[in-house]
Design a protein that fits this description.
Elements (H helix, E strand, L loop, with lengths): L1 E2 L2 H14 L7 E7 L4 H10 L6 E7 L4 E6 L4 H15 L11 H14 L8
Parallel strand pairs: 1-4
Antiparallel strand pairs: 2-3, 3-4
């Protein structure tokens, strides 16, 4: 796994999406991480130090895996760039078919009125 800075990570992610346009997939995972081992975190907590958590972002196309750590100060910039890349590269998704709300409500009312009401017989 290759650990990159956020900007080169986004460039490489774009390249991954371009390589897999015809065939293949890209998997992206995000994870809350402190980039320290559990022992180091426990020592920091007992010493009263604050543990800084970051976002670990990993991407793979099945052949190559890349990752980056995004801190609080870079989060907004990274998120907007990441969203732009996703919007531009997810062209193969199909639009969802939506029913007209009025037609759906009318058909539900018709179904309810067709059912015979049962009255208890004594």
């Amino acid at each position: 796994m290759v650990r990159l800075q956020p900007d080169p990570f986004l460039n490489e992610l774009t390249n991954m999406f371009e390589r897999t346009t015809e065939k293949g997939s890209v998997w992206v995972t995000l994870k809350h991480s402190s980039d320290k081992s559990k022992v180091e975190r426990n020592k920091m907590v007992t010493a009263g130090e604050k543990v800084e958590y970051k976002c670990l972002v990993r991407a793979t196309d099945g052949k190559r895996t890349i990752s980056t750590m995004v801190g609080l100060k870079d989060h907004q910039k990274f998120q907007s760039s990441y969203a732009t890349i996703l919007k531009a590269r997810m062209t193969a998704l199909k639009k969802r078919e939506r029913k007209d709300k009025r037609k759906a409500a009318d058909s539900d009312k018709k179904k309810a009125s067709k059912k015979p009401s049962r009255t208890p017989q004594t």
